[in-house]
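subagent[fold] <- orchestrator: predict structure for attached chain, return tokens only, no commentary.
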Amino acid sequence: MTITSIPHLPDFKLLPYKLPQITSTTTETPPSSSPPPIKILRTSSWTYCGPLLDFPLSKNDDDDESDDSSLPPSYHTWHRATIRGEPLIKLLKPFLLFAHEFIKSNGLKHYWITIRASLPTNDFNTPRWHVDDDFFDRGSAANLNNSNSNHHHTNHTSNNTKITRTQWKLATTLLGPGTMFATNTTSARQTLKAVKQAVKTSSPSHTCTSVICLGCANLAECVRKALADELKHVEVVQSKDGECCFFKVGDGIGAVHSEPRMDGGERVFVNIVPGREEELREVMGKWGMEEWPRAWCLGVPGGFWEEEG
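subagent[fold] -> orchestrator:
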């Protein structure tokens, strides 16, 4: 597999992670109408943060189902409570093998990965156009557009030590529709910025006093509705089976995207945030999770289940 280095990639790019199936040139195969290989029982998620997970190297789709035996115990707790049918690992493994090679080729060995299974919902009938937060920004970078590179930003500490942070993600959809990405990212970001400013200017000011702020929530909903109208004719692309999306994050370089409509079926989405160990440890520490590595699941019976490293 040929890996493209991050500086040469645009704000987002669809990348194939599975070889296309070879079909006969003499016999036309009708489209499959068989049901999906898995069934989602509940909306829930599993998350892991730490070194790249250990996987067998074989990419043979007929590998033994026990391939997921090396995954943390919380994954199996989540899988038993959420998935019916074929083991999810058969869909997940090709993507993770690709992602691991991609991440390592760019000098990283750790990540934050979340698998989110969703039942049909009307929550995204109105698009939620946004750019993802700059995960590792400490708030000291004033303008990401002034970065010398289009994939990282360099801060200087008091002793003039350079710190380069990771500003990109990988994501794919194993079941259901892919995430929608606006094809003209520069124009979409300008629209996003203008709408946010207009809504903020027209809204009464408030002081945030808690993490859950109703003022901010109302503002975000106004922005969402305004953006849905402004970008209703925007050209979008979505990943297909066997494709994942590389995309950059942060207000200055982030790809503008939205969840697709999800009222027509179930969905399994995988999101990967690569990073250096110290970056990921710092983020986890802010949330009171000091142990490393760590894995947990949400939305399963009992509410929250985790194990520490």
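orchestrator: received. Logging for downstream: Residues 8-15+36-138+167-181+239-309 form one domain. DSSP finds five helices and 15 strands in the chain.
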